Amino acid sequence: MSRFLKYKWAWIVWAALFAVIEISAILDDDKDEGDFTLSHYIRRAIGTFKTSPKMTTGNWVARAAIIALLSWLPGHFKVLLGLF
Please, what sign has the CA dihedral across residues 5, 7, 11, 14? Predict the structure, then answer.
């Protein structure tokens, strides 16, 4: 099995598992406090969630990290899609 084919299947499995976890978190009616989806955790980290209205240095660092990640992702996906 080629190296790229192995990673292709790894990404497909990762995406499927992520979808299962997120969908189950969204549809779960028996959530405890703290059982949230990825978007809830991100909103908490960047300071836009109701439980953390005050902006801290950590919130600004998280925002800078997310901006850096989002600026890197398009190029990463372009290379990744070229493998398929």
Answer: positive
Percent of the chain, pLDDT > 90? 10
Token digits of residue 15: 């995406």
Give this prediction's pTM. Answer: 0.54
Q: Quickly list H helices, 28-56.
A: 38-46
Contacts of 31 (CB under 8 A, 6+ apart): 25
Tell me what pLDDT residue 21 has: 86
For 2, the token pair is 């080629």
- Arithmetic mean of pLDDT over the chain: 79
What is the C-alpha to C-alpha distance for residues 3 and 9, in angstroms, rounded to an integer? 10
d(CA 53, CA 56): 9
CA–CA distance, 79 with 11 (Å, rounded to integer): 14
Tell whether the model's pLDDT for residue 39 goes beyond 80.
no
